[in-house]
């Protein structure tokens, strides 16, 4: 027992000597000091911080559809003379070229399905009585092809237009819309009447493509470019008022009557023709909204322009 005790005592002394001599490994003095964990903010504090930051940021301005086709002053909310100046953009230019080419057969075939003697000379005739439908099959095929291809194009290359989501929704609604006259032949004149708006769409695109310089169409000039821009603008505004502001609201009542008559025929109001009423109402509201925005911006521009002239005349002593 004494031997074991003495051995333990010698081992303890040996360890003590090694520690004092520095033979034991020491921790490096260059190691970074331990930093206490930072307090974790609660979710409520983080949400308050985010809310304060969002309130401090200026609100984002919602872009108007008029800015896609007009020179628009967002601060004064007025439409300036001329059209926006467009830079070279292959995706947009190729899509515009496709629309200008493909809309022509749609417009021509639509015109060929109407009896224009009845429209121009007959008295007290309804729109449906002027419809012949001789070229309806080809008219429907070309129209469906155009909208499907354009829908796929915009979905794959959304940069070719400035409002891809709006146009995609419009094309989907239109494709659904034209299925009704395809399935019910008595409503095919409705398709012809509604698609007359593509004439205005063609002038809208041509107004941009043929005037990339952004020239004002009402500037007095006798050059060929000026005459071309003037004619396109005149036809654009004429078809806008005649089709979007007059024809579309007028068609609302016949469409409603067609739905009621078809409901009596099939025995229920819940039928496919019922979609005509809300869809056409949405198109009418959109047309009226765009027309109102355009008109009010023009009115603000004319008022501001008149006040500037008045102030300048006063400064000149007149």
Automatic annotation (TrEMBL):
The keyword Membrane applies. It is a multi-pass membrane protein. One of its GO terms (cellular component) is membrane. Residues 130-295 form the TLC domain. Pfam families: TRAM_LAG1_CLN8. It is found in: Membrane. Keywords: Membrane, Transmembrane, Transmembrane helix. Residues 1-21 have a biased composition (Basic and acidic residues). This is TLC domain-containing protein. It comes from the Eukaryota. Residues 1-42 are annotated as: Disordered. The chain crosses the membrane at residues 97-116, 136-157, 231-250, 270-288. One of its GO terms (biological process) is lipid homeostasis. Its main location: membrane.
């Amino acid at each position: 027992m004494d031997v074991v005790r003495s051995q333990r005592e010698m081992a303890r002394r040996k360890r003590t000597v090694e520690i004092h001599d520095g033979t034991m490994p020491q921790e490096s003095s260059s190691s970074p000091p331990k930093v206490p964990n930072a307090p974790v903010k609660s979710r409520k504090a983080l949400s308050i911080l985010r809310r304060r930051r969002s309130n401090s940021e200026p609100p984002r301005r919602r872009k108007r559809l008029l800015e896609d086709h007009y020179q628009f002053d967002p601060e004064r909310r007025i439409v300036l003379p001329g059209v926006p100046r467009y830079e070279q953009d292959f995706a947009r230019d190729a899509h515009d070229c496709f629309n200008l080419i493909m809309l022509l057969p749609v417009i021509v075939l639509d015109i060929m399905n109407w009896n224009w003697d009845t429209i121009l000379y007959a008295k007290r005739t309804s729109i449906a009585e002027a419809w012949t439908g001789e070229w309806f099959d080809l008219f429907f095929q070309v129209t469906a092809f155009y909208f499907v291809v354009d829908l796929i194009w915009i979905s794959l290359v959304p940069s070719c237009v400035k409002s891809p989501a709006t146009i995609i929704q419009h094309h989907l609604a239109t494709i659904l819309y034209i299925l009704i006259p395809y399935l019910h032949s008595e409503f095919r004149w409705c398709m012809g009447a509604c698609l007359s708006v593509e004439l205005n769409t063609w002038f809208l695109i041509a107004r941009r493509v043929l005037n990339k310089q952004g020239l004002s169409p009402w500037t007095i000039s006798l050059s060929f470019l000026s005459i071309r821009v003037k004619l396109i603008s005149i036809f654009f505004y004429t078809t806008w008022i005649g089709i979007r502001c007059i024809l579309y609201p007028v068609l609302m009542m016949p469409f409603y009557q067609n739905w009621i008559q078809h409901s009596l025929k099939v025995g229920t109001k819940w039928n496919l023709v019922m979609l005509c009423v809300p869809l056409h109402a949405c198109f009418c509201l959109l047309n009226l909204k765009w027309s109102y925005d355009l008109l009010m911006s023009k009115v603000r521009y004319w008022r501001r322009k008149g006040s500037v002239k008045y102030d300048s005349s006063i400064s000149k002593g007149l």
